[in-house]
Specification:
By secondary structure, the chain is mainly α. The chain has a domain at 21-66. It has helices spanning 2-19, 22-39, 43-67. α1 (2-19) runs antiparallel to α2 (22-39) and α2 (22-39) crosses α3.
Length: 75
């Protein structure tokens, strides 16, 4: 459940970054509220939870790519 909400938040943040708009801000706040309810955390706690989970997922994916022989260099 948490993973699904976090994935939706990541997508929403990406859309907001690309297209802007209040609807994405509202969507983010709605999803954050769902995460707060699911975890019992307050607003700041939920934001920190997202940051940790996204960081963990990114590190895991980086290791997978590196393990598959993919170049991880950018630019």
């Amino acid at each position: 459940m948490h993973e699904h909400i976090i994935n939706q938040i990541v997508i929403t943040v990406g859309q907001w970054g690309k297209f802007g708009g209040v609807e994405y801000e509202h969507r983010f706040e709605s999803l954050l509220g769902q995460l707060q309810k699911a975890t019992g955390l307050d607003h700041e706690g939920a934001v920190r939870f997202i940051e940790r989970q996204v960081g963990i997922t990114a590190r895991k994916r980086f290791r997978e790519l590196k393990g598959n022989g993919c170049s991880t260099k950018t630019g």
